[in-house]
Specification:
By secondary structure, the chain is an alpha+beta fold. The chain is built from 3 helices and 9 strands, in the order H-E-E-E-E-E-E-E-E-E-H-H. The strands form 2 sheets. The chain has a 7-stranded antiparallel β-sheet with strand order 1-2-5-8-9-3-4, with helices on both faces. Bound molecules: zinc ion.
């Protein structure tokens, strides 16, 4: 089932997600619905907050992005990222590998048509639980590492506009404000 994607201005995007301790039928259904919603929207990542649920649950799929490479390794062995997509991450944590940072453009399904450069760590180690409730650990770099950092932020209630430098954010302010006004109007109509 397709879910509605929540836009900037909805307070759920600022909520820290609760940990998911068990893969219940409800969680499995939510994961299926979020995957369908993410693919339909041509997103490479989606967090539970973006469908109105403040949970530590997110997913990424970088399969179709050909111009921005991703790397992945498990236990020191390089693997093909596409073999692991979509990646479902529950209660994810990550640590920085090395000290390389990279600035590159990002968008977000909760900010239609807004794109800005964000500085992120180029390589990270990730630990999480997967959709079967099993522990997963891997190292990743490039676009995949960027997407996971963006999604992890969502799970804490942090948005990519918070990570923009002041000039970028000022340039995008009219578009960001317009989304917020539109969302607030919609929330008012529901009451
Ligand atoms: Zn996002």
């Amino acid at each position: 089932m397709l879910l509605d994607i929540v836009n900037y201005g909805d307070p759920v995007l600022r909520q820290k997600g609760e940990r998911v301790e068990q893969i219940t039928p409800e969680i499995t259904q939510l994961i299926d619905d979020m995957l369908e919603t993410m693919h339909e929207a041509h997103g490479i990542g989606l967090a539970a907050q973006q469908v109105g649920k403040a949970l530590q649950l997110t997913m990424v799929d970088v399969t179709d992005v050909e111009d921005r490479p991703s790397r992945m390794s498990i236990d020191g062995e390089a693997v093909k990222p596409e073999d692991y997509m979509p990646l479902i991450l529950l209660n994810p944590e990550w640590t920085v590998v090395g000290d390389t940072k990279e600035e590159a453009p990002e968008g977000c399904l909760s900010f239609p048509e807004v794109y800005g450069n964000i500085n992120r760590h180029e390589e990270i180690d990730v630990m999480a639980m997967d959709e079967k409730g099993e522990a997963v650990a891997f190292r990743c770099g490039g676009l995949l590492a960027r997407a996971i950092q963006h999604e992890w932020d969502h799970l804490q209630g942090i948005l990519f506009i918070d990570r923009m430098d002041a000039i970028t954010r000022a340039e995008l302010k009219p578009e960001i404000n317009a989304i917020q006004v539109e969302t607030t109007k919609g929330l008012g109509n529901q009451r």
